[in-house]
Amino acid sequence: MDLTKCKLCGEQFDSLSDLAKHLRSVEKIKQADYIKDNCVKKDKWSGDVIPFKTLQQYDETDFLNRDNFIKWVMRRASDQEAQDYCFDYLRKRSKTRPFKYIPSHVELRAINCLSIIGIEEKSSVAAYEEFCKGLGMLPRFDYDAKITVPYVEGMKIYVDTREQLPLSFPCTVESKTLNVGDYSCAEPHYSDLVVERKSLEDFVGTMGKGHARFTRAIERAEKQGIYIVIVIEEKFNTAFKYQGKASRQKFGGPSPFGIVRKLMQAHGNIQFLFANDRDGSADKIKKIFSVGDLIKKVDLQYHYDRKSL
Ligand SMILES: [Zn+2]
Hints:
The structure is a single chain. This protein has 309 residues and is an alpha/beta fold. Among the domains are: 75-134, no CATH class; 156-305, Rossmann fold (3-Layer(aba) Sandwich). The chain is built from 14 helices and six strands. A six-stranded mixed sheet has the order 2-1-3-4-5-6, with helices on both faces. It is elongated. It binds zinc ion.
């Protein structure tokens, strides 16, 4: 549906804001009334009417939620349709919120788009990367890279003294005051790679109300050349559903996954990994420190979901 054309007089506009101006000053009609009378949009899977909030939101929305998008992809769309839809969707989004980096697996799972694994199944990562580069996005992760976890002799993990609920690791652990992060690995090997551990509630609080403070911490780390992996002790889907239902009433502030997407685009020195539970988090943190520098070049959630981390 082309929303940049006025359905009342047929005039074509370059942008939604030009149409908005036209509706206001020439047609003298409220946006919501104009939409209701002329261009009602329905969920591509369920056929339910999509509620109107803003022209931009209406233009970008074809599904009421990600579940409906996934059902459409799995049960109705051909591979080509799924790919075309996702590329169009990203093109549309990138007009109003340009992507600096090619969106990662976590970012894609948090919008109505195929994830990297979905793209592998319906299209190819190479095609996706080409498409994104065409829109001016920078590559961030190497999806051809394989992770091998070496055995590290005498490995020692530092835990910040302020860490409330320290995880246990099958290696030497020492308590230490860390400037950034909750966990780091003994020098000289990986001192510029740290892990922030978050329970689900920590995550929602930090990405919601606490996001300004967290952003400053990321910026400080960036200046010091420190890379942060934020490990969440929860499944991605549980966190994603939880934030939608609970976070705004309980925590207030912006949408946590909106902040995740924003931070991932603004900072090249972070990524997020949803590691299921506390045991999973401890296991992945030890692997992250064992692998070292390569961690910064691989999409951890992608490898986690692929079971290759
Ligand atoms: Zn008009």
